[in-house]
Design brief:
Beta-lactamase; binds 6-diazenyl-5-OXO-L-norleucine; about 300 residues; about 45% helix; two-stranded antiparallel ribbon
Length: about 300
């Protein structure tokens, strides 16, 4: 069973929106602080091409941490799996997404997984190309293909705002460089990473990207395998174990679908073999996940029994 009714989806949005008042927009990246905490939108993209949506669907969001799933897929397509996982682990942390704590206590100092900032910085470091611009264009072309929109670009203001203020991520980079996990210029890596996080799209496009992961990397429109199946599976597994950071366990129990959140308030869901979900609701809970977005997914999962467990 699935939700194909716009009217029903609208009702879920109205119900979930009530939670937004209990959340807070992220402002540690100053440009994100301008978002309206009461916005909430959702799109569900089915493999047969139908897309049902509700809420403020014209709003664009920056991907932020959602981009970590996409950069991981790209890097796994460009490099040997063992090479990538020689530098970043596969285990959840139970710590906040930007924590440096485990890096110091683990030996060797490799980040525990690619969904926390430390691990994502290593993955972005592994994107191939001759310079930052070339590497960014490779990633952007991949995103355009997944979202099926050649016009996707970045929000320059958000990218600059994060680049100018992201001292904690710089600290993670320097730590990783000291321990020889990465070997590039930190400012160049920050430039690439903040552009990656500032790629913007609306919830309809986000739902399409989720649908490609749900279909194990195959684009049902063109029949093309955009991501090899085994890589799409790895990405979805990380979405289940680490996609909602240190709320991933509770999310798996209550909702039970592979999902990835970002501090802009986005959530990308991939219901295996069924559909992709794109949500935008910028008011966050204390762990950095969209508070109304999670409520919306709870309502959908309960109503349509979406849990894969
Ligand atoms: O690196 C950062 O802090 C942000 N660009 C992304 C963090 C993020 O989205 C965490 N999400 N919940």
């Amino acid at each position: 069973m699935a939700c194909r009714s716009k009217k029903e989806l609208k009702m879920f949005v109205e119900e979930a929106k009530k939670c937004a008042a209990f959340g807070k927009v992220a402002d540690y990246i100053p440009a994100l602080g301008k978002a309206n905490p009461n916005d909430l939108s959702i799109a569900i993209h089915y493999p047969d091409g139908e897309c049902v949506s509700a809420g403020d669907i014209d709003r664009k969001i920056t991907l932020q941490s959602i981009s970590k799933v996409i950069s991981l897929a790209l890097v796994l397509m460009e490099r040997e799996t063992d090479e990538v996982f020689g530098k970043v682990g596969m285990e959840p942390t139970g710590d906040p997404f930007n924590s440096i704590a485990k890096l110091e206590t683990m030996a060797p100092a490799k980040p525990l997984n690619p969904m926390i900032n430390a691990g994502a910085l290593v993955v972005t470091h592994l994107i191939q190309g001759s310079n930052v611009e070339d590497r960014f264009q490779r990633l952007l072309s991949f995103v355009k293909e997944l979202a099926n929109n050649p016009d996707i670009c970045i929000d320059e203001e958000v990218a600059k705002s994060e680049f100018d203020t992201s001292q904690l991520n710089r600290a993670l980079c320097y730590f990783l460089k000291q321990h020889r996990v990465i070997d590039e210029d930190v400012e160049e890596l920050m430039d690439l990473y903040t552009k990656q996080c500032a790629i913007e799209m609306n919830c309809l496009e986000l739902a399409r990207v989720g649908m490609i992961f749900a279909m194990n990397g195959r684009d049902p429109d063109s029949g093309k395998q955009l991501i090899p199946e085994h890589i799409a599976r790895i990405c979805k597994t990380f979405m289940v174990t680490c996609g909602m950071y240190n709320a991933s366990g509770e999310f798996a129990i209550k909702i039970g679908i592979p999902a990835k959140s970002g501090v802009s308030g986005g959530i990308m869901g991939a219901v295996p073999q069924k559909f992709g979900i794109g949500i935008f609701g910028p008011a966050l809970d204390e762990k950095g996940n969209s508070i109304a977005g999670i409520k919306l997914l709870e309502l959908l999962s309960e109503t349509y029994q979406l849990s894969m467990f």
